[in-house]
Amino acid sequence: MKLIFLGPPGAGKGTLAARAVDILGVPHVSTGAIFRSAIADKSPLGLKVKAIIDAGKLVDDETTIALVKERFTQADVQKGYILDGFPRTVYQAEVLETFSAVEKVINFDIPDPDILERLGGRRVCRKCGHNFHIIFGKPSKEGICDHCGGEVYVRDDDSPQAIQKRLEVYRAQTLPLIGFYRQKGKILDVDARPAIDDVVDNFKRCLGI
Ligand code: AMP
Predict the structure, then answer these.
(1) Most exposed among 32, 49, 133, 136, judged by the fewest C-beta atoms under 10 Å?
(2) pLDDT tens across 164-203, in order?
(3) Which residues are tagged catalytic?
């Protein structure tokens, strides 16, 4: 199944994706995670995008599209994928249509106060990218990832200023994608407010599985 996870920062896209890969047997492709890994490696791509990402702005379309196209040459995505964080602009969505046929777009429905609560307490594993939360899902040992033993940290773009900027950018650039995909009959709305087990149930119900 070829799916896009669409929603504001902090909606729980990455958290649901971590569960959905096992349910659907397709890989999770997160552009944000690929950028963070490039930043950690201090690769040319990482050095180019670090300041932009830390400020909560979008990386330019050309760089981002090239990254996704490159990822889509790999065998594992041919049978399906969960695209998380891409597309984020209508232009990216139009280009995506030229190289892959998305089946459904999961629209994460969540009000602003819930977003702020989630982003404010979010912690991420530096090594495997697993998401934790200081209230809703702490690691068993503080600061250490339960899955790979990596360091659990606060993302640089989870600072209050960057959060504000990311929400602004989401509203201006990404929100129009809901209309874009709704017109094509591809949107499935998922109530993303409850705890993760219930969001997983909502997700399965809306896919009819
Ligand atoms: P995320 O992990 O999806 O919240 O992404 C973290 C950051 O990576 C975003 O705030 C952007 O700076 C950058 N990024 C991720 N995906 C995209 C995209 N599709 N287009 C532009 N920038 C992106």
Answers:
(1) 136
(2) 999 999 999 999 999 999 999 999 999 999 999 999 999 9
(3) 13, 88, 122, 155, 166
Tokens at residue 54, please? 């830390």
Per DSSP bridges, beta strands 187-191 and 2-6 are: unpaired
Cross-strand pairs, 189: 107
Mean pLDDT value across residues 114-119: 92
Q: How many A from CA of 192 to the centre of ligand 1? A: 20
Mention every residue, 6+ apart, whose C-beta is less than 8 A from residue 201: none
CB neighbourhood size of 103 (10 A): 12
Kindly provide the residue ranges of all beta strands, DSSP E only, lying in 31-186, ordered along the sequence: 81-84, 104-109, 122-125, 131-133, 152-153
Count of CA atoms in the C-beta half-sphere (13 A) of 134: 9
